[in-house]
Amino acid sequence: MPPHAPAMAYICQSCLRILRLRPRLRLQHYSIPLRRLKTAATPPPQPPPSPADFETGTFRKDLKKSLKSEHKSRQSLKHSTFPAAYTVTCGLEIHAQLNCPQKLFSRSSTSINAPPNTHITPFDAALPGSQPSFNKSVLLPALRAAVALQCNVNEVSRFDRKHYFYWDQPSGYQITQFYSALANDGYVTLYPHDTPHASREGVRVPIRQVQLEQDTGKTIASANVSLVDLNRVGAGLIEIITAPFDVPGVEFASAVMKKLQATLRAVEACVVGMEWGGLRADVNVSVRPKGVQALGQRCEIKNLSSLKLAEEAITAEVERQVRILEDGGAVEGETRGWDVERGTTKRLRGKEGEVDYRYMPDPDLGPVVIAPGVVESVREGLSPLPDEVLEQLTGAEYHLTVKDAQTLMMWDEGEAGVISYYKDVVEKVTTALGTAAAKQKKGKEIGKIVGNWLIHELGGTLTTHTLPWSLNPLTPTALSSLITHLLTNRITPTTAKSLLSTLFSPSETRTVEQIIEQENLAMKPLLEAELEEVVRRAVTSDDDNGRSAGVLAQIRGLREEDGGRGEKKKKGLASFFVGKVMKELAGRVRAERVESAVEKVLREVV
Amino acid sequence: MAFLEIAKKSLLAAEKYSTLNSLISVQSKPELLRQVQESQRRVSSDLGESKSPIDGQLIAVKDNICTTDFPTTCASKLLEQYTSPFDATVVRKAKEAGAVIMGKTNMDEFGMGSHSMYSHFGPVMQSAEDGQPARSAGGSSGGSAVAVARGMCYAALGTDTGGSVRLPAAYCGVVGFKPSYGMLSRWGVVAYANSLDTVGILGRNTINGHDANDPTSLTPQTRERVQDLLSHNRRRGRRLAIGYPEEFNLVELDDSVRSAWENTLAHLSSQSHKIVPVSLPHTKHALSAYYVLAPAEASSNLAKYDGVRYGYRDPTDRSQDGLLFSPTRAGFGAEVRRRIIAGAYSLSSKAIDNYFLKAQSARRIIQRDFSNAFAQPNYLVTDNLEEGRGEGGVDVLIAPCSLSKAPFLEDVKMQKSPLDSYVNDVLTVPANLAGIPAICLPVMHGEDSVGMQVMAQYGDEETMWEVAKIIEEGLGPKAEQASNPAH
Under which main EC class is this enzyme filed (chain A) (predicted)? Predict the structure, then answer.
């Protein structure tokens, strides 16, 4: 199909606006749709999510679903360990979209779900006569990544052209950093909370290089025609290249990817994670018999767009290479791809078909020179790294379990602001409790209780209401007030839970205090005698079609039976009355008191 | 003469010499005259004021410089139908100065050639008198040179990567100026070899200046710094030291060219300037370095012409054998294909050390040769006033621009190897590799003219113009012809 004559409207209005105003745009986290890279091979393409989907929480559901399926596949993989006689080595090349509102070498804005081909300048479309102009603001997120990955940032780095033909690469080459990169020689450390394969001191995975490069366009393939969207062309990426590292189990490799992803996100170098297509990985895999020093022949698996795909591809590739070696063959160095449908890697090209990229210094672009002091100021302004956050959350200040802390952090990754909300609530509750706060028992620390409420009660209620975090109706003040009332025994846990539901009602405008007051929810200072009277009535009444009478008869029948077993059974039957009374009192009296009252009354009655 | 009359006369010339094939696109007569009248009104009205010395003048633009009013074809089948959505910065500036773009000039495809023969639209001819064989217009800006020489326009824009403005100027007997690299914006100039490409002028200079769109355009601060430093030690208006590079005196040099060179030096000496022999020992590597570097950059720059987004696309471009776009890319002419293949080879992982990298170091050495000859250092790379040769150095270098006067096109076509054409660039590429300014001007030798070039240190166009003026006044074609070849 011949291309249309060049259109005059080659740049969209919002790009023009940026040209004039250059505001510092921030990507909105909740507006990140799921992006499918392999449009050709994947099952039926889903319709693009409309903004309304995010508001109604479809996005969150999708997130949960994908996490669940990831978990499932992890479970199944746990059983398939690598062959014991071999050592597996991987090297990763991770490509991640930089958190920058504009492209690397043009002023057009980066976009995720804009209509196709609306964010293009002459340079992005490789029009004749156009030239790149380096967008310095891309350096900040890239430097944050390099510093967070403990790299040495090079004072001078340069841009090179990497040549290959593909229709989503308009200029016929990608501008990258081949001869001298932005940063080198870093590492990322994995701890037991990242992977069971790590010792307490941690395992270091060395990082060879962090470089800047351009993203490509997107191909939307169908049976007869391939459509090309150039919106993504020229957006800034960083490529992170690790040195080869031994992989004791496949989940170690994905733990490395996850750790890199979490680190990049924590320092706001990248906002879009792997499951959203903002991260892609090429994985080099080699195997060698245990005890052999020299690395085996490696194969590269290209373009893995999710952790799950990476794990599956590595597992299959290790199996393939081991099978070759077991059969007395030799692994050939080649580039392979992951065949989703067959569940195997497939050969893309061998050594003789290897693409010669003909790297050439870009003759239009000067070197990137990092002025003295820039790296230091980036380092000082860096947000805490995931390990630091975890240490803080599980430390003396917050007392969260590693599991709960990781849940919060994962939640925060998807929907920013969760952790700061958590900290805010803890602080407010602590202040409200004053000196009483210090008396919290072990296992009942404020941090832990707030964590439980946030993850299980608030999180659960958000899910049942299919609300995203950004539409959480509870302010930190509301939740902390609720928890404070609970911890000071002004309300019972049952009341607290129903209060939470009340606060989710869209028409609810009252404060927690007001609701407790107006609905008469405060725990009643019921006198012992009054309580006993209520219990007595519950035990002896026949207002429940004889059920109470039946239970009472059973308890009486127990008298003949001997010892401990009877006692136990009696307790179980008594709980029927405890429940009945609790219900009647709408949870305004603590269960322990009701229990002892029931026990006392039963002794009298039976 | 009023603008309108000049414009009409130019249009007549364009019609008369249309067989020379110097223009690919021409502005329609009514539109052209409308624009000229607008300038005329501006200049003649009481309130009005001429925008610049080129206000109302007709300018022709080489067809590898982007224009919104005409297609920009680069004389290639691949861009035959392509019209740019934006004007090149030099075109925009010329328009803002009041110039009227009269059309786009023919050239060697993508600027690759020395005779303007390798065009999808057919070769440019310098003359087509009855019974006379056509002579080469030089390349690759041959169309621009012929348009100026035949009075179709006041001046023309060309591009000079390895001599593409100066060689046609020498062959056609007009003035061709290649500024220092980075002075004139390349935004909108279709890249052949970015690190060597310069916009050249066959006429006068008004489009100088920084352009933020061109990352290789010198910033105002650098311009100021270079000019400030140069002004400290200029021997302006005093006795100049004029060098002639011995390595340019090639055996292949035509006798007429050599004697015109000697005449030029003699004339300058008679004006009491000092004439000094200079050695640029690495000049012998310049041509090979150029023919490694320029094709390497070209192979990269031309990768974008795949017919996917714009330009020509072969109807059979649906290959099943994995060779993407190859039928479309067969649409390039033979010379362009030759250079793409040569460039791709010299960048390949097996050859890059031996070719591309060696050529890059040769380029540095050649630059150093020039700096060792000039009195002033290259202030792009140093701030130190002491680094030049000082008293022992020269202010400008004088050398011929071509080995001979324009050859007959028939003879060129008979050449067996493309190398025979490449040799023509031997005198012009050193200035491109060094990034320094050079101007080619016609020096009369008997009935004919020979192109002589004046080269100066980086940024020192001022001294270059000073010497060019002395040569033009003494040895150029008759004064009125020299200052404005249209009349």
Answer: ligase
